[in-house]
Amino acid sequence: MTLRIALTAGEPAGIGPDLALALAQHPSPGREVVTIADPELLRERAQQLGLAVDIHEFEPEAAPTPQAAGVLKVLPVALSSSCTAGSLNPANAGYVLETLNRAVSGCQQGLFQALVTAPVQKSVINDAGIAFTGHTEYLAELTATPRVVMMLACEQMRVALATTHLPLAEVPGAINRDDLAGVCEVLQRELQRRFGVKNPRIAVLGLNPHAGEGGHMGREEIEVIAPTLEQLRQRGMQLLGPLPADTAFNPKVLQECDAVLAMYHDQGLPVIKYAGFGQSVNITLGLPLIRTSVDHGTALDLAGSGQADPGSLFYALQCATEMALAEQGS
Predict the structure, then answer these.
(1) Would strands 238-243 and 149-153 be described as parallel, antiparallel, or unpaired?
(2) Contacts for 303 with CB less than 8 Å, ≥ 6 apart
(3) Can you tell me the mean pLDDT for 105-123?
(4) Omega within 30 of 0 (cis) for the link into 242
(5) Is residue 124 located within the same domain as residue 38?
(6) Reported pTM
(7) Which pairing describes strands 259-262 and 158-161: parallel, antiparallel, or unpaired?
């Protein structure tokens, strides 16, 4: 069976088109990759990069065929305005979101078995007057999913987040028993369903330094986190913690768990990005579709230069493939 996976090319002025073109230089056995983007943008960027690519318009009615080297199948979405590599244009914000809309619609219709996303530039979408906090939140809203969980994974570890793109001052108020329990439940269910982990073990970090140090550095661990974990343990979940974040990412803890749950964005992600930057993947858990992404941003300074590293995109594609196969086998 040949899987069909959608790839959105992300911010047109960034390295997303470069990465899609780099991916097309290699055969992709067992899967057909369909890039959702403006074909003319891809042709112009390929010329700028000096890459030979044969661009074919995607035919939904045709049976999926494994991607051949040098061939790029494209589901066309037209840019709203001209695009220069490295130069943001708010006029194209709607184009970026439309590529996501088309990808999600295709997944919902069964046309695609998974979605891989290249990076978008949140600031330029907001500059266009569109409220947008990130892929994770947008896809949740688009699919009417009440709770999603952001997780990054590399060879060494998986790190999920209890909260995502929030100002640091708002994080403590966003951590409550119901939401924390819901995040743990989604994380456990997805580890079982899409990663084949029968009895997941999850290490949960505290919010405060030294996990609150018995209440002397904050009471969230005592009043919210620990009682929630105990309640979930009584239901059979295997949860470690709350653990001090400064000592949790050590080999012993990582060997004993299948994922780490951090309380906020910059508590967990710097560690995994240090350990596997360019070789890790961003995964949205809880959606009715499989979505993976690169672990980096739009890198405007590298767009069109030929210097963009496609390693994270290759890993995101491989992870999406493995998740799709696991789901079909479950």
Answers:
(1) unpaired
(2) 13, 14, 15, 17, 18, 85, 86
(3) 97
(4) yes
(5) yes
(6) 0.91
(7) parallel
